[in-house]
Amino acid sequence: MENRLDLTIDQILNAGKAGSLAQQLERVYQTSPLGPIDSNIVNTVYGINHRQTPAALPLNKDRFGFTFFTRPRLNLTRNNLRVVRQMYPLLNTEPGSVQRIIRALLDPDNAFPPTNRSYDKITSPYVDDLMPFIPMLSNLILSMSGWPDMSVETLTSPDGHYREAHSMIDSTFQVKGTFELNATFRNIPNNPVTLLFFYWLFYAAKVFEGELLPKGDSVYEYEIDYNTRIYRLAMDPTNRYVQHILATGAAFPLNVPVGMIGNFDSTQPYNDSQDNVNIRFQCIGMDFNDPILVHEFNKVVHLFNPGMKPSVRNQHYIQIPYEVIGFFNMRGYPQIDPTTMELQWWIPYRMFQSYLTQLQYFADLKGLPNFVSEIQQRREEEINAT
Question: Can you give the pTM of this predicted structure?
Answer without folding.
Answer: 0.85
